[in-house]
Structure formats: C-alpha cells, structure tokens
Amino acid sequence: ALARGETISATLGEAGLPARLQHLAGEVRSGASGVDGIFRVVQSAGNLELGRAVDVNIALPAVANAIALPLHSLYGNRRIYLVEAERLVGHEVVTLGQRLDADGELQVLVSAEGLSSQDSILSSNLPKATTGLRVEVINDPQAAVPDAQVAGAML
Question: pTM (2 decimals)?
C-alpha cells in the first residue's frame, strides 16, 4: 500500500492519537528479524513519552478475496474445516493477517481457491478435528464477510 502511495492510518496508545505510517524498516539477523514502522503523529503528541512503547492499531486497505474467521477456526495456521453433508472436510488456506471485528474480537483473514463466504466453516475448539468426522451443526451464523472484501486488516 505504501509503494502505491496509499495513506496508512493508525491510532497510538490508549488515547488513540491519530498517526500516519511514513515508512517501514526491516532487519534480519541470525535467529531474529523484525520490522519497525515509523509513524507521524497527526495531532498533538502531548501524551507520548520518548522511548515508551505504545499499542498501535493500523487501518490497512481492504484485502480482496479474503474471509474473516474467528481465530479458533484455524488449525495449524493453514487449515480450516468446511462442513459438508454433516462431515468435516479439511481445506488448506493462506493466512493473510488479522483484524478486530466490530465487537473487538480478533479474527484471522484467510483466502483459498474455491473458498466462498457462503461455505459452512467449523468454528469451534474441536481438538481432534479431521476430515470425515461426523458433526452436527448447532449454530450457523455468517462468520465470513459477505462481499469477500475485508477492511481494517492487521497484517
């Protein structure tokens, strides 16, 4: 998004000071790596102290062809289970990032070939989920975003 000249907005700290991402700086060392985000505070920074760590919430551009799911829907960082004819069917996904939903709950953003926002996806802490396991759907809320475009991602 930065390379395309898009503005990346953020809020800093408990006060939610508005800021804009200026650039990213990465470092890779043996056994460690990290990325630093350099932000410019848009309004008064009176509540910020030099050298103090603060929470940063970043509002990134929408991610196309992504579905937002509860964290416990993801198994091993790359597998979800669809419910088809009362049986679980494993499906490999690519994890794109995370976001907070309207209630402040953390969700994972995933995409996969053939995955639709209309699919019934297992959303439970089932420890031994496996393809072919018979299940009964008790509650079937729309966990995914209907238009398959997710805004506010934290990548």
Answer: 0.67
